[in-house]
Design a protein that fits this description.
heterodimer; A: alpha/beta; Rossmann fold; three-stranded antiparallel beta sheet; 30% helix; B: globular
Chain lengths: 342, 595
């Protein structure tokens, strides 16, 4: 039996990780498997990926995918800063970051905002379930107002919508999906991996243990019934022949990604323009007032300079420079001494 | 009246934001260029404009660099501190005041010289009169002390370099007040300046600038920082030198600089960059260290090289943010929750600021851990005498990094945290290399970096980390000893106390004591410090804080039988250490002990 290889001739097993220790049925595991598929299908070399995470259930998942990639399970809410520093050191790596709603919407919201502001070149997946799982079920800042936990208390505080926030900050790639929508999530994941800049992928990922009763707005059944897809997707890396010939012409639009690959948006009862900030805000707002989750690519701008671009660094990644190029010359110090001596 | 040559302290009281710092630096540089041993201490407020500020100029043929214990010449420019400054003076002091301030100077026992500084300044430029008035006291002092006019004008030119109008205006002001003083002042007091031979190698520099330069020569690839006094000028000096030292012909740089959103992010970026294989640093002060503590623990536990410079200011809390202290030492040494222990290197001169600026990276990469540079506001932001910076005498020590598959193949059983060499230092690989990748973590881990809560695994890991840091004791900058053969009293001190120690020593030795000095330059302590304590009859640990932080560390780490002869003299009021004050406290302690 022949093993199926991707464009860089690696089997999918080279992209797998360790066994998950999350609760059985956890949506996060589905996201992990989407990450594995997307990295394999995009033909990313595992050793050129750096997996980044903070603290929480979601942040444990880098142990469960891409076992041949270096990773860093950092501090609660502080993964963006670590990734920013790592990107300065080695700008040619693909930074694949996983965070949660506690990590990104509460303790780490400052770093989340500033990583977007700097446009750090990274994929930023939020596995968003509205609860703190590891500390056993406290509400997070993304919990929908009025939702009720298993124990019965109702959340009285309005949520922070991280996609809305990202759009207002000028985030260069803002998308929302659902851990149960494997096809759409896969397309968005591959697109995010191809994007050059900060790609936010907010994935509603219901908590099977603490947030899955019928009244919870992040429950599996609620999301399944109330998800409103903005577009249907197919992502086509440039190296793979286009196979989706059945999509009728005129009913989709193509967006060219930085690496030359194309994200195809099939419009379903919507003419959403993902380059339009106001339209993105309107879609999020309208979904919110209708108690729905709008999914899809909400906003996209491939032209923004990244955090590394702004540094005007030499072309070789700093981590690959020889020591003698990092230490200034003896003559330059002689000159400095002479200048001081007047 | 006997003339007092090159031995006095001048205190200049002005308001912040009036340009007085320029006037003060012109004085400092004129004296320095005349070959006169001089030091300047800037006591400034946490404010942009308006609050009182003082500049202390110590002139000392003996070479003492501490601010003097008493003021001999007082310049009064500022209403707000006017009376306090007058009350502080001893009889016989010279008071030079701006008579246009219209406040009384009620000291019959002092030599009082009123000068219409604002009026004179108005004749030159009414709009800028408040600023020009400050240069007026420069002219008055030039005449009274006998400063070299030519060198004074050179100093003015350097101070306002490139600004022709400012140079002309300030030079004219200095000449005007000098002439006024020659014509109108009959009794100027005993203090005067005589030129000495200028050491051509020496110059004045701030420690922060020296550290910044050193960091460049250490090949720093990232500086991430959050503004905080008194460390900001370190980061800013680092940035200023990038075009000359780190850019290619196209202007592309070999180092990144990020002004972070807070200190947590600043140190987080350092950890990320260190993990990825470049030399990264951040600069901060005490409040920043507090915020960084969680990351410091992570870097210690996951063994990531990181360099953090703490330019200490007065705490706790916001404290006295523009004054100096050695109050962060134990916080640095023990930073992070749980059991930790960090390398701290402590420069005491600008030359060492430069050297430790690059050496910090060698140590951080060698030991795969956090290395603190410990400076303070006095060393960092005041002008200290420097003989020049020496080029690093060794290639960069990048530590144990496995960079190729061939190197990896030589390992029988590679594990990120396995102590292969028995020195507590494991081997690491870098992201992007594909070599033995692991998920780095702040959680418990085994030799292979795999999550583990096993009791024996955790215990062994913590013992190895302790052994690793302990092994650095003889490899860190060793103490500087100045020992008397009698081995009677030994003073252990560190950092910016260097500027005051010789004067303290001389005051003590004038009483007949024989005093040895041991300047500690790193934590954990060198075995040499233990030897010093062992050999001396009595040891004083002298430092600029309330509780005797170095003393506490020594009590904890010295063999128990040595502890009884070690005593603490610790004092902090925000001002760089005045020698007589500290010497008196040492005498008091010694007398108390011998009773």
């Amino acid at each position: 039996m022949s093993i199926k290889l991707n464009v860089i001739e690696l089997p999918k097993s080279d992209y797998q990780g360790g066994a998950s220790s999350l609760c059985p049925g956890c949506g996060h595991d589905q996201i992990s498997s989407v990450i594995i598929d997307a990295a394999w299908e995009n033909g990313l070399a595992p050793e050129r990926i750096a997996k980044m995470s903070g603290i929480g259930c979601s942040s444990k998942t880098p142990a469960y995918f891409l076992g041949k990639s270096h990773g860093f399970n950092t501090l609660h809410g502080r993964m963006p800063a670590v990734t920013t520093g790592a990107a300065m050191a080695n700008k040619d790596l693909t930074f694949l970051a996983v965070s949660g709603d506690g990590d990104s919407a509460s303790i780490g919201i400052g770093q989340f905002i500033h990583a977007i502001r700097r446009n750090v070149d990274m994929v930023y997946v939020i596995e968003n379930n509205g609860v703190y799982g590891l500390t056993k079920g406290q509400y997070s800042a993304t919990a929908v107002k009025g939702s009720r936990k298993k124990k019965g208390e109702i959340n009285e505080i309005q949520p922070i919508d991280l996609c809305k926030l990202a759009v207002t900050l000028g985030c260069s790639f803002v998308a929302r999906s659902f851990s149960g929508s494997k096809k759409q999530l896969g397309a968005l994941m591959k697109a995010a991996m191809s994007h050059r800049g900060f790609a936010l992928l907010d994935v509603i990922s219901p908590c099977v243990t603490f947030n899955n009763n019928e009244d919870s707005f992040r429950s599996y059944t609620f999301v399944k019934d109330n998800e409103q897809e903005l577009h249907a997707y197919d992502y086509i890396p440039e190296r793979v022949p286009i196979t989706e010939a059945e999509i009728p012409e005129g009913e989709y639009s193509d967006i060219e990604l930085f690496d030359g690959s194309t994200l195809r948006l099939e419009t379903i009862g919507s003419d959403h323009d993902p380059t339009d900030t106001v339209a993105a805000m309107a879609a999020l707002h309208n979904a919110e007032v209708a108690n729905k989750h709008v999914t899809g690519l909400l906003y996209y701008d491939p032209t923004k300079p990244t955090a590394v671009d702004d540094q005007h660094l030499v072309s070789t990644p700093l981590a690959d420079l020889p020591d003698e190029e990092m230490r200034p010359s003896r003559e330059s110090l002689d000159e400095i001494n002479a200048l001081f001596r007047g | 009246m006997d003339r007092v040559v090159n031995d006095f302290t001048l205190n200049i009281a002005t308001a912040n934001g009036t340009g007085s710092q320029s006037a003060n630096l012109i004085l400092l540089h004129t004296l320095f260029e005349m070959g006169v041993p001089v030091s300047g201490k800037n006591l400034f407020p946490s404010n942009i404009a308006g609050l009182p500020t003082w500049y202390i100029l110590r002139v000392s043929d003996a070479g003492y660099q501490a601010p003097g214990d008493r003021t001999h010449i007082q310049i009064l420019m500022n209403k707000a501190s006017w009376q306090d400054d007058i009350d502080y003076l001893e009889a016989g002091s010279v008071i030079i005041y701006n008579s246009d301030v219209k406040l009384p100077v009620d000291r019959d026992d002092c030599i009082c010289i009123g000068v219409p500084m604002t009026k004179m300044a108005r004749t030159l430029n009414p709009k800028l009169a408040r600023m020009i008035a400050n240069v007026m006291y420069v002219g008055v002092l030039a005449e009274l002390l006998g400063l070299d006019q030519e060198l004074l004008e050179v100093a003015i030119t350097k101070q306002f370099k490139g600004k022709a109008k400012a140079i002309e205006l300030n030079s004219e002001a200095a000449r005007m007040s000098r002439e006024w003083t020659a014509e109108n002042v009959t009794e100027g007091g005993p203090y005067c300046i005589e030129a000495r031979e200028r050491d051509g190698n020496g110059f004045l520099v701030e420690g922060n600038e020296a550290v910044a330069l050193g960091a460049h020569f250490g090949g720093a690839g990232l500086l991430s920082w959050y503004p905080i006094t008194p460390s900001s000028s370190l980061a800013e000096a680092f940035i200023d030198y990038i075009p000359d030292l780190r850019c290619d012909e196209d202007g592309n740089s070999t180092c990144a600089v990020i002004q972070a959103e807070d200190e947590l992010a600043a140190v987080g970026m350092v950890v990320g960059a260190g993990w990825s294989g470049i030399r990264a640093m951040t600069t901060t002060s005490g409040p920043g260290i507090s915020l960084m503590s969680e990351f410091i623990g992570l870097a210690y536990f996951s063994e990531i090289p990181a360099v953090i410079w703490d330019v200490n200011r007065v705490g706790p809390s916001t404290g006295l943010p523009t004054r100096t202290q050695q109050g962060d030492l134990t916080m640095l040494y023990d930073a992070g929750h749980g059991d930790t222990g960090h390398i701290v290197i402590i420069p005491g001169t600008p030359e060492e600021c430069f050297e430790f600026g690059w050496r910090a990276f060698d140590l951080a990469e060698r030991y795969q851990t956090v290395v603190f540079g410990f400076s303070d506001l006095d060393l960092g932001m005041n002008h200290w005498l420097c003989k020049g910076f020496e080029y690093p005498d060794t290639p960069m020590d990048r530590g144990k990094v496995v960079r190729t598959q061939a190197e990896m193949d030589a390992f029988e059983n590679f594990g990120r945290y396995r102590d292969v060499d028995g020195d507590g230092i494991p081997y690491r690989t870098l992201p992007g290399s594909g070599l033995a990748p692991i998920l780095y973590r702040g959680t418990g881990h085994d030799d292979d970096g795999i999550y583990s809560e096993k009791p024996e695994v955790y215990h062994a890991l913590m013992q190895r980390l302790k052994r690793k840091i302990n092994n650095s004791r003889s490899e860190l900058p060793q103490p500087i000893m100045r020992e008397e053969p009698e081995k009677q009293v030994g003073i252990i001190y560190y950092g910016s106390m260097e500027n005051s120690i010789q004067e303290i020593d001389d005051i003590l030795e004038a009483t007949g004591l024989k005093v040895s000095q041991c300047r500690v330059r790193a934590l954990p302590l060198s075995p040499e410090v233990e030897r010093f304590v062992e050999e001396h009859e009595m040891v004083i640990v002298l430092e600029i804080n309330r509780d005797g932080q170095m003393y506490g560390i020594m009590r904890r780490e010295l063999p128990i039988h040595l502890v009884p002869k070690v005593h603490s003299v610790a004092f902090s009021d925000g001002i760089p250490p005045r020698a007589q004050l500290y010497a008196d406290m040492v005498m008091e302690k010694l007398n108390g002990v011998s009773k």
